Amino acid sequence: MKKENSVEFKVSGRYALFSDPINRIGGEKFSYQVPTYQALKGILESVYWKPTLIWIIDEVRVMNLIKTQSQNIRPVNFSGTSKGTGTPLNTLSIYTYLTNVEYQVKAHFEWNYNRPNLEKDRNENKHYIVAKRMINRGGRRDVFLGTRECQAYVEPCKFGEGEGAYDHYGSLSFGLMFHGFDYPDETGEDKLTARLWSPVMNNGYIKFLRPDECTIKRELSSMKPKVFDENNFSGLEEFEEEGDIIELDS
Amino acid sequence: MNWIHKLYDTYENCKSEVGVARTDSKTPLLPLSHTIVNSNIEIVVDIHGNFRRARNVSKSEAMTIAPCTEDSASRGNGNNPHTLFDKLQYVAGDYTSFFNDKRDKKFFIEYIKLLEAWSNSEYKDEKVIAVLNYLKKERLVADLISEKLLEVDENSHVTNKWFGDKDNKPMKTSDIFVRFIVEIPGDVNCRLWENTDILRKYHNHYLNTKTKYGLCYIQGNNMLTTLKHQSKIRGNGDSAKLISANDENGFTYLGRFSDSNQVVSIAYETSQKAHNALKWLVDIQGQKFGNPKDGQKIIVAWGTKNQTIPQILEDTQGGIFGKEETAIVSTEKEFAQRLNKAIAGYGCDLDTKAEIVIMGLDAATTGRLSIAYYRELYGTDFLNRIKHWHSTCIWQHSYKIIADGFDEKGKAKFKTISFIGAPSPKDIATIALGSPRENSKTQKKHLELKDSLLKATVERLLPCIIDGAKLPYDLVNSVVNRVSNPVSMEKWEWEKALTITCALVKKYKYDKLKEVWEMALDENQKDRSYIFGRLLAIAQQIEEYALYTTGEKRPTNAERLMHQFKLHPYKTWGIITDKLGPYIARLGSKGTGLTELMTQVNSMIPYEEFTSPKKLDDSYILGYYCQRQVFIDEKNIRIQANAIKKLGQAN
């Protein structure tokens, strides 16, 4: 990495639900007050991602007042079907969402050295420029805030610009919170690990710990990294010098 | 910080309350590894385990703190004994010979196993060993029979006859719950359930039996974990849990995780403390909505150091001023002073660093409890928001019924008081959305609100109180429409609806337009709707007065046409004045004052405004109320003056 490849964007939506695992386990989803590292990483990966790189979220800024709203929900109960019609049964739940959220996010990418077969793809300028372009376009895939039903919108922004609701609030701590998962393709170890940390929001800004700096971890299960090869990754040939040049119009 | 951590902190801060019996028969803050049960019979043994005596326990003293295991605390039909006090089937070795049911001796064996494990551990207690020694004799039921607490029939089976307190009667005699006293001469700590030493010993012993360590997601340390969390948060019959994992087939947590253990892990101690604190708070200061059978909605607000805080979902009188003597406050200024004083009183306890948590609990199903509302606020912030609500959403109400001592026969007496302040969310919801129900005996109508609607409306009003949100307009609109139809309701309820409507309109106008509407009549108010409202009140007064002179009693035209009047003021006013003719004639010279006032008020509206087909704005109800109140006040003064005059004549 020769230059800083930092990207900044704004993500907003009417609802957000970053489930607290304590309530999530029973099915009554209850949102954390602020987004988790993993949720923001997922948003950025929806905007632009290649197995060649790992997104690292540096900082988030909470722009709007943290407000919640609970909604009664009728989720599908997969454990059976109704006897008469064969349609799936339903259960009832109450989900608590954050409403009217807006976050400014600052992030950068690093190479994933656990994928040696993609070494030739480590073209910093290319990925940086595509990432910027994808943020301008609002992302490649659709973006959501924490939970699938909370549709979100990505726009470019200047980090720290504009007025936020917590600009003069001082510091606010959220207790121990989920940070993210260590997946085997990023750590090189064949296991899934959960990371936790105690975030502190200073005047609306939360500086994230890097995943490798988190000390509170819990190993969950063994897991193998996903393999990207000629069967599921068409771009590989592009790196070979003799490879055909793929024309845009062909 | 998250909710469970706040509850944990509250428990830590209130440790002095742990296990202390309360005077108001509410649940005490429970020690760890203990649950609360109702005992029916108390057995006294000596230190060698010899039976001394037994007695029935009355309802008022039945509450007992019992050592339990995670399994027994959440037990259903299985064989999960508590560790020390339990039902006959567990504690009585001779249960099978006196009760003719399916329960066999394995309940007793399982129970004794637990008690022996405790008695052999390093945290054993000689009094508990005494109980164990007694129970091993397997003659508990026989002793109860010889003490005449139970009765046997000719087959020497125990009958269902209960000799004790009727209010504390067990479902069947086989369900009798037993607790123990171990008497040592000169020792006052003989009641095992109040002996903090034993409570502590049991908790330590129980922790020792646990082996599974893991990361606690709340504290971040490696601690003894638990998979079972408590139910009964909203009360004894409640089986809903805040933390549970039972969906082993669906996709509630499956997917990335292959079993529930991977999702989260929580320390036993954290879970126990947080749940005990929540149960305690819900019982002593939670506000409950709805029927316990269908699951109640609970709103509970507390300071993490258990400071006194205002009741957030009460009207101003009950919630802020509380039990203090009700001084008569008749003006807004006096009210403001009083509110400031009351808020300042709470402020002594709640400094800027005090943490206030407001939590709403609700369940969509019977098994799972959900957090439907959650806020953390600093003390001063909280008080400011509460004060804002209680100083903007106000009117003078006269419907509140409070207890007023007891009469000669010892029956509770009630009286209706008048107060200035904000109505309670429950009253607002009922007036706005209730539907009329007729009492089949008295034929009297009153408004009734469905539980589900009540819960939902209270939830919508909560942000208006706590977060300073705007009042939802549909509620304002709904109360205005309701009150515009006086003939549909009983008089008292309509009066109640009227003042609540005024409070809501005042609040809404303030929120939306920053207008401040006075509670007293403003004769210079030029607002079209306000003046029309005043006119309506005058027309009603003329007709009422005329009816009164001849002793008739029926709704006036003004009341009957109120809703039409709101929609088409000009057209309806024509009808009302037409019908007013005979009444004015009947009053003769007595009515001149009123008719003059009517013309005077009428002339305040410019002609185009007066004839305009526009419907009236909500502020008409304020004009109506204020003008009407002037007449009521005048009447009261007249009555008083007459009474004084009469007294003077009598003397």
Automatic annotation (TrEMBL), chain A:
Top-level taxonomic group: Bacteria
Biological process according to GO: defense response to virus; maintenance of CRISPR repeat elements
Segments traversing the membrane: none
Keywords: Antiviral defense, Endonuclease, Hydrolase, Nuclease, RNA-binding
InterPro entries listed in its UniProt record: CRISPR-assoc_prot_Cas5 (IPR021124), CRISPR-assoc_prot_Cas5_N (IPR013422), CRISPR-assoc_prot_Cas5d (IPR010155)
Enzyme Commission number(s) of this protein: 3.1.-.-
A UniProt-annotated Pfam family: Cas_Cas5d
GO molecular function: endonuclease activity; hydrolase activity; RNA binding
EC category: hydrolase
Function: CRISPR (clustered regularly interspaced short palindromic repeat) is an adaptive immune system that provides protection against mobile genetic elements (viruses, transposable elements and conjugative plasmids). CRISPR clusters contain spacers, sequences complementary to antecedent mobile elements, and target invading nucleic acids. CRISPR clusters are transcribed and processed into CRISPR RNA (crRNA).
Similarity comment: family membership: Belongs to the CRISPR-associated protein Cas5 family. Subtype I-C/Dvulg subfamily.
NCBIfam families in UniProt: cas_Cas5d, CRISPR_cas5
Designated name of the protein: pre-crRNA processing endonuclease
Organism expressing this protein natively: Alkaliphilus metalliredigens (strain QYMF)
From TrEMBL, chain B:
Organism annotation: Alkaliphilus metalliredigens (strain QYMF)
NCBIfam families: cas_Csd1
Matching InterPro entries: CRISPR-assoc_prot_Csd1-typ
The protein's name in its UniProt record: CRISPR-associated protein, Csd1 family
One Pfam assignment: Cas_Csd1
Database matches in CDD domains: Cas8c_I-C (cd09757)
